[in-house]
Amino acid sequence: MHVIRERTMRKQIKSEPVVAESALNELKKILDDLRRDPSLYSVAVYLAAAISDLESRRG
User: Fold this and answer.
1) Are the beta carbons of 47 and 27 closer than 8 angstroms?
2) Angle formed at CA 6 by CA 25 and CA 20, multiple of 5 degrees
3) pLDDT for res 45
4) 51 belongs to a structural domain
5) Residues 47, 31: contact at Cβ < 8 Å?
6) Comparing C-alpha atoms, which of 9, 20, 7 is closest to residue 51?
7) Distance from CA of residue 38 to its chain's centroid?
8) Does 15 map to a domain?
9) Does the CA dihedral 9-15-21-23 come out positive or negative?
């Protein structure tokens, strides 16, 4: 049982960058939508800053 759990954890750790990249791409799509609506400009600014921070941490 322990071996199975360890293998699962290894697979999960390897897949995390792929999941993170996918999530970042989704955030960028949301940002594009927000930028089209002037009433949501302030939300777009915060999201853009968060995306920029995530990208800088990614390396």
Assistant:
1) yes
2) 5
3) 92
4) yes
5) yes
6) 20
7) 24
8) no
9) negative
Nearest to 50 by CA among 32, 31, 37: 31
Structure tokens at 33: 């939508």
pTM for the full model? 0.63
Q: What's the chain look like in SS3?
A: CHHHHHHHHHHHHHHHHHHHHHHHHHHHHHHHHHHCCHHHHHHHHHHHHHHHHHHHHHC
Residue 49 to residue 55: CA distance in whole angstroms: 10
Q: Scanning the structure block, which residue is given the tokens 């996918």?
A: 22
In a domain, 28, yes or no: yes
pLDDT in tens, 5-58: 656 656 655 666 777 788 888 989 999 998 999 998 899 999 999 989 888 887
Residue 16 counted as domain residue: no
